[in-house]
Structure formats: structure tokens, C-alpha cells
Amino acid sequence: MNKEYINPDPGFAGSSAEASDARLSALLRESRTAPALPPRFQEGVWRRIEEADAPVKTNGGVAWLDALAALVLRPRLALATAAALMIAGALLGVRDGSQRAHQDAQARYLAAVAPNSLH
Amino acid sequence: MNRSLVILLGALALCAALLGGSYAVSRRVCQNCMSKSVSDLDWLQREFHLSDADLARIQKLHEGYLPKCGEMCAKIAAKKLELETALNGSTNVSPVAQQKLAELAALRAQCQAQMLQHFTEVSQTMPPEQGRRYLAEMQRLTLGLHEQTESSMSGSAGHEHHH
To answer: Are A70 and B7 in contact (CB under 8 A)?
Structure first.
């Protein structure tokens, strides 16, 4: 498009058009003033890149709780824990229940043969 | 953090409920099953590993002893009533009350002697080792209670009377 404006005559020789483009580009470069970069600009850019790449720092206690909560919510682990707890509770209950029944049976025998010694 | 904490606390509560619930249910079921339709002598058979023949002999002794025991209990109850009547309304221990106390003590001693005699007879129907263990256990259970009371009331246990 620009070429058409700069060099409107399509029949003109190619070398002349290229020379005209080069001159125009040089003029444009000279006319554009680049603003001065702030001090330590490059260093600042690199620092921000490194910060963006670094992993997100979190509080140690919170991370530990989150990890444990995630572990607890695993279905297999939750089911296994529930089953283990129920089995442990049942075993303890059977042990205590049989001990209690044994004591009751002993008390029943004593109440039959020695009622006065009990009170 | 709050969500994780709630999850963990909920999980802990669920664990406690599961453990406690299964413990309570199995304990109750086990106790009911083991206590269901047991006779007075079931404990003897289990504790002292008695055969059916041993148990049958003991059963005979037991059935012979129970009426005597009941009779002695009735005598003691009647004597206690007499003692209460003698003590009723009086501010000091009268000679009649002292007499009733002595009679009550004599009856209790007689009851204990009869009981110990029964334990001896039962122990003799058991295998020797089990018999010795039974006799020692019965003496500990029936006489030990009085010994504990007496030792706690005596000065040897560090107890001082302040009258």
C-alpha cells in the first residue's frame, strides 16, 4: 500500500523505488524519538520474570492442613480407615463384653451361695 | 484453611463415632449373648474348666446347699428385725439389744461356717488343682470383703479414730 503512495507510478524502474524506500525509512527513524528507559530497567525486568516463574510461597501450617484434608478425602483411604476403626471397636467391645459377662456370672454364683457376704 | 480444618475435624468426629459406636454395639451384643440363659453354675464351669460330670456332682451339692443357705438367711433376717426392735427408741444399748447382737453374730458365724463347708465340699469334687484354686478364690471373695473393712477400720491402715 505504502509503496503505491510513495511510488505511484507502477511503470517506474524497481531500483529507484527501493532507494526511495530506504531514504524514507531513514527519515522516519530519525524523526522518531525513543524515550529514555528508567534506571536499572533491565534488572527490574529480569527480577519480575524470576518472580513469576517461582512457585507460590504458602504458609507451612496451612499447606500441611490442606494436604491432610486432601488425604482424608480420598475415598479408598476413608473406607479403609472406617473399616479398621469399626473392626477395632468391635474387637474391643467383644473383649470388654465377655469380661463383663464373666464378672456378672461370677456375681450371680456368689449371690446364690454367699448372699450375706455381699452386703 | 478453614475448609481443611472443618474437613479434618469432621473426619475426626466421624472416626470417634465409628469407633465408639462399634465398641458399644459389640459390647452390648456380646454381653447379652454370653449372659443369656446361663445358670448360677456356668461361671464355675468356665472358670475352672469343669467337665460335665464334675458339674453334675457340683449341681447336686449346690441344690442341697441352697435350702440350707435360704433357711440361714431367713434366721438372720428375723434376728436383725429383733435387734432393730430392741434398739428402737432407746438412747443406749440395752442388755436385750446386746443379747440380740450376740445372737446375730453367732448366726452369721454359723452361716459362714456352713458356706465354707459347702465350698470345701465343692472343691473336693473338682480336679485337685482347680479345687485348690476354687477354695482360695471363694475365701478371697466371701471373707475378703470383711477383711478389707476391718483393715480399713483398724489403726494399721493409718486410720485414726476420733471419738
So the answer is: no
